[in-house]
Amino acid sequence: MDEVNRIVPQLIHHGKVIRPGLGIQVAPDHLAEELGLTGVLILGVQPDSPAAKAGLRPTRRDAANRIQLGDVIVAIDQQPIHGMKDLTAAISKYELGAKLQVTVLRDGKESPFDVVLGNMQ
Questions:
Q1: Which CATH topology does 20-119 take?
Q2: The pTM is what?
């Protein structure tokens, strides 16, 4: 019922559903687990997305063609994130334009980033 109450006004006002998001592509949970990671591994960051503007890093290849893992999202507003289900649930609590703190594991240490949710249709 909560989902219907959230979506119907958007359909009436915009003619479509507005989905706030970060603008990232993520690894499947089983892959992150196989790599020994707890959280959500960022595989890609869409250009000019909220994640790109905040400075979140995607997985990439270095000059020697070795894979360099991207940031791993471990918390949203200090709420632990263990996998994609947690990330989706955490973001669904916010409206478009909301500012939240995304904590990522980068180079072995946790770092917080402020991200303003954008429209990810």
A1: Pdz3 Domain (2.30.42)
A2: 0.85
